[in-house]
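Propose amino acids for all 218 sites.
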């Protein structure tokens, strides 16, 4: 794709500027996964969450200036929204299948060498034994440290260990930028009284059964 875009640039440098190519590649790489998270994280079923995120952005970023990557560390609540979305709607719900390279014990079960292991992150993220009110969308839980790294292996949207997602940092920044900008620039509402249907459809990256339709105001 980069080769083709560079060819187009030679023919039409103005249209295919470095900036445009950079944007297209970034969106292409990160778009698929992060798109599903943003769909779920818009939070239109929880207007108070959106309102809190909006106030945090207003407190930390001068009016009239679009938020950028350097602002993200200050936007802790926005980060909590993304974490809570990844908890309830993990993009890779069964992670990626792994094989045990040697015999081991997992949760008291003996696992022979060469066994395929599939981790159900979706179920772990909603396990009432380890989460308070697991079915509730409550970004604040991440403010109190619930789900932090030291809190066991209960929050694993990017997997764990040496085969975990190498792009978790990039993905978190992309989602922060995209969701933050959407919240900063627009006011989001449901299209009616009815709650947005969050039911999950089938697909590797947990898309919704019904596509998100919302109303936005400048
Ligand atoms: C919200 C965004 C993303 C989520 C939730 C996510 C999640 C995951 C998960 C759960 C795994 C499997 C970990 C395991 O099996 O233990 C994984 C692996 C991987 N991810 Fe991501 N990912 C995201 C974005 C990306 C992006 C943007 C890239 C590339 C630019 C990427 C590249 C990879 C690669 C190369 C692996 C395989 C690592 C290995 O097997 O060693 N991911 N990701």
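Proposal:
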């Amino acid at each position: 794709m980069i080769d083709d875009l560079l060819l187009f640039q030679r023919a039409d440098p103005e249209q295919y500027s470095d900036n445009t190519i950079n944007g297209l590649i970034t969106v292409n790489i990160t778009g698929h996964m992060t798109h599903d998270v943003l769909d779920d994280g818009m939070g239109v079923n929880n207007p108070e969450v959106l309102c809190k995120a909006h106030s945090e952005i207003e407190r930390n970023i001068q009016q009239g200036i679009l938020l950028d990557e350097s602002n993200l560390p200050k936007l802790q609540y926005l980060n909590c929204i993304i974490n809570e979305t990844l908890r309830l709607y993990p993009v890779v719900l069964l992670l990626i299948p792994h094989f045990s390279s040697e015999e081991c014990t997992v949760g008291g079960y003996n696992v022979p060498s060469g066994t395929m292991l599939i981790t159900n992150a979706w179920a772990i993220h909603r396990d009432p034994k380890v989460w308070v009110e697991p079915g509730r969308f409550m970004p604040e839980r991440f403010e109190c440290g619930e789900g932090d790294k030291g809190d066991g292996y209960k929050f694993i949207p990017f997997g764990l260990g040496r085969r975990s997602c190498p792009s978790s940092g990039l993905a978190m920044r992309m989602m922060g930028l995209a969701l933050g900008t959407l919240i900063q620039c627009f006011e989001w509402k449901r299209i009616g009284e009815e709650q947005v249907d969050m039911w999950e459809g089938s697909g590797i990256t947990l898309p919704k059964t019904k596509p998100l339709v919302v109303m936005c105001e400048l």
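The longest helix spans residues 18-41. Residues 29-30, 33-34, 37, 91-92, 95-96, 157-160, 163-167, 170-171 surround protoporphyrin IX containing FE (CB under 6 Å).
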